[in-house]
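Onboarding guide, step 5: your first structure request.
Type a short instruction followed by the sequence, for example:

Predict the 3D structure of this protein.
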Amino acid sequence: MKHPAQQHGFTLIELVFVLIIVAIVGVGISGFMRATVLQYSEFMSRSKLINDSSFIVERMAREIKHAIPNSIRVSGNSNSHCLEFVPSKWATTYTALPMQPSNETEVNVIRMADINNATFLPTTANDYAFVYPMESADIYDGTRNKRQMITACSDDGDGDCATDDDSDNIIQLSVANAFAQSSPASRLYIGSTAVSYCVRNQQVYRHTGALDATQTIFTSGGVLMAQNIANTLSSNPAAQTGASDDPFRWYEMSLRRNAYSRILLSFSDNGQTISFMHEVHIPNVP
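The system replies with structure tokens like these:
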């Protein structure tokens, strides 16, 4: 048995040195872990921004590509910017078109069927026929007679388009009035409602509504499509002059190119900022 005087332990200085070393190691480990967590958080924020932004841009581009020609228009103010268009429910070719000042109201069109031979039937309650719209006013202003309400659909079988028993694949659409102008390509488009994408309060909303000569700048409602928008809105996006951070721009067709829409959306969250610019060309022609 050892004498008490011969027993050894840690001195106060040794304990202090141990505590200092442990503290230094702890600070190093915590700094490393903090940096790792921060990098992971930034990665997740960036991934979320990319996913959210790519979804809304692709969604808008897909819809705009199928818009009726020259139905796109842009308007707004420093609080809200809206891009509006009319989706094409169907496009076909006509063989006979009633022209003003005629009182005829019957349009002969080629039978409308998809790749699976399923017949498209216009809804006579609110579907319009559009012929040769050269500007947005031709789409939204009914007094220009570039659009007419479809009132009935018949064929030379039993008279009902739904039975799909036409012999020559030419069906008859009854419209409310004759058209003001014919299409050089004999094209006829069918649509019913307008779709608007609006940027306000750092968010993107999707709205649907009736066709109106005056574009609606939505300040409430709609379906939330995206958040964390960082664009700075100008007071008059329709002017489209100079460099701009406006989310929507519309460029009319020229002799060298089709009309196209430019989408520019900036997303910002948790210190991360991503900008997407996408030009959507309209393949349809009036």
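Each response can be followed by summary notes, for example: The mean pLDDT is 85.
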